[in-house]
Amino acid sequence: MTERKLANSQLGSLEYDPAPESAAVARLAPSYGLFIDGAFTDPSAHVQFASINPANEETVATVAQASAADVDRAVASARRAYESVWSKTTGAERAKYLFRIARIIQERARELAVVETLDNGKPIRESRDVDIPLAAAHFFYYAGWADKLDHAGFGASPRSLGVAGQIIPWNFPLLMAAWKLAPALAAGNTCVLKPAETTSLSALILAEILQQAELPDGVVNIVTGDGSTGAALVEHPDVDKIAFTGSTEVGRLIQRSVGSSAKHLTLELGGKGANIVFDDAPIDEMIEGVIDGIFFNQGHVCCAGSRLLVQETVADEVLRRLVRRVEQLRVGDPMDKNTDVGAINSAAQLARIEELSAYGEREGATRYTSSCVLPEKGYWFAPTIFADVAQSHRIARDEIFGPVLSVLTFRTPDEAVAKANNTNYGLACGVWSEKGSRALWVAQRLRAGVIWANTYNRFDPTSPFGGMRESGFGREGGRHGLEAYLDV
Amino acid sequence: MSERLDVRKTYKLLINGAFPRSESGRSYEVTSFAGEFLANVAQGSRKDLRDAVVAARAAQAKWWGATAYNRGQVVYRLAEMAESRRDELAEHVELCEGVKTREAQAIVSRSIDRIVWYAGWTDKIAQVFGGSNPVAGPFFNFSVPVPSGVVAVIADQDSSLQGFVDTVLAPICVGNTVVAIPSERRPTPAVLLGEMTATSDFPGGVLNIVTGLSDELAPTLAAHEDVDGIDLGGLTPATASELAAVASGSIKRVLRDRPDPAASLRRLRAFVETSTVWHTIGQ
Predict the structure, then answer these.
(1) Residue A10: its pLDDT value, please?
(2) Chain-chain contact of B124 with A144 (C-beta, under 8 angstroms)
(3) Nearest 5°: phi and psi at B131?
(4) ipTM score
(5) Is some CB atom of chain A closer than 8 A to the CB atom of B278?
(6) Least enclosed by CB within 10 Å: which of A13, A279, A415, A463?
(7) Domain B10-278 homologous superfamily, CATH
(8) pLDDT 10s digits, A191-241
(9) Neighboring chain B residues of A145 at a CB cutoff of 8 Å
(10) Which of A191, A302, A303, A429 is labelled catalytic?
């Protein structure tokens, strides 16, 4: 035991050298306009706002605030492109445009990864290995569907909807743009995309890529701005379809607004994912999976495994291992290739995480927070685990959307299922057990759109993703993802 | 100064990613549609075919073991290579098929678009042909399409490029490896396409091409015990019937349709097996 302690302390004293990625790779312009009708244009009110690097609070570039008039121009451009070009373009030709886009994303992958990390605060390792390759893969996958819609299971010659208004969140900026645009374009729609206010830049690089791919003008329009821009898009009478990814709170407002019109709607909203650990789970893989399930992307993941349900017999051991593992996470400069946990995306999000964590302590949970040293500038939150959490606690009910894990316990499979389903959300869950039949038994009873067994946070363009209950409706990815953009 | 003497090309076989001459040392003369000398093309032997089947068998597990996404990218890369050598392909299609320049170019365009179409299929086959089965009991039951294995292709005799693309890429994109005998009289566009696979990240052995006399070669493949399926679409109905009977010796999957891009997914399904997994569900 003494020897092991010694070894641990020696390992703990080993330091990594910094391995910083270069910000110059981003090649960003100082300011960006709105991408309408194939060209970057000034917003009508000439208002620009700063896109901030959350790791150091410096301005990365300024982007345009689109007004309702700008949104109207973008929708008109999408409508024109739909009527005159895109609805007459064959599936095989649409496919080739999408393949081109996929290829250029691959070619400009490093640049995009750096832009994403500068603008979002996520570790460069994640933008490089997850966000950008998956974005390219989504375009590649849906490219293949564009000329195969007859075989997608919706009958012969399924029709597109028209103009799609798409509003995406800040947690996976380019990847969410790909999730929205690729199936919409494959199915034959034209798009107006509204990136999140704090993370517009990778979408604007994507606009350059669409130009390089020579996608016909107006097929994709990108309008940057705050919530008012999104509202103008949702309320626009000439939009046929709204696809929204974001909070349940905003999703409700959008559904109410759209409800009185003929617009089609899909919503991918929040979650409070349960990660269920049985006593026969493979412990090393499980610990890594649970850690990845909540601390991946600073916990800014709608499907994060933010509620850990551990079988009582192994709860002490699991908690001890988790706390030790959290201490080892490297928190800091997102541009360092060895960083595990980066910056919180915005001051507002940091305030929300701090507020909910304070509730955790006040309501009686036991808090373990990493002793890591946080940088002085920027928005940071040390990875945190709460034990002794009850189902009634706010940290067990509200989506925190940050690096905070709540640990609860259970005794029987029935109790695990009951506790996992005791939420208004229904996006994703995890099950850890060496017994396949039990994992499937639990999966069958969970009210969640995605269930991972002995793994967590897996994403693939072929696999449908989306929620039940207040996590929204509609699926993105796979054959099922086409349905959101077809009149079927 | 006299005019530069051009460097002429030898049209060789493609076996296991390499370009050998026939082990038999033979070649045969291929003429253009107009009857002019075009090339001396390797005249493959039964031994060449056996080598090709060994290569295809060895490559199959690796090809099927790659992700569907990766296979799609490799096939798409072939389209990129073909696009950059499209003039050369068109020249050969024009010479071999005797069509006008513009038509030859259109054939090449359609062929490349067809490769792109197949590239998109690799990761969709399972979703269109597979699925879960609601069995009456506590079981999770699902079926996935898996490749037959090694597929022999006797390619279309007239459509030197487009027909070849359809007959070889349909089995390849679902995970099979292929030994193909191109059109006997019009083999050069297929040989060119084979060369392009060598610069498209195709693992050696996924596509093997043995040129030669189809009367001599086709029966060897039909009778080969380590071939799982055979596409006889390039033969006359009488010969195809005869070889289909031979193929029954090792219960091969047999396809006898000529390539027809409009014919739904018949060609894609021809060399696919269904594998079903039952898994218990319980506490």
Answers:
(1) 56
(2) yes
(3) 155, 175
(4) 0.91
(5) no
(6) A13
(7) Aldehyde Dehydrogenase; Chain A, domain 1 (3.40.605.10)
(8) 999 999 999 999 999 999 999 999 999 999 999 999 999 999 999 999 999
(9) 120, 124
(10) A302
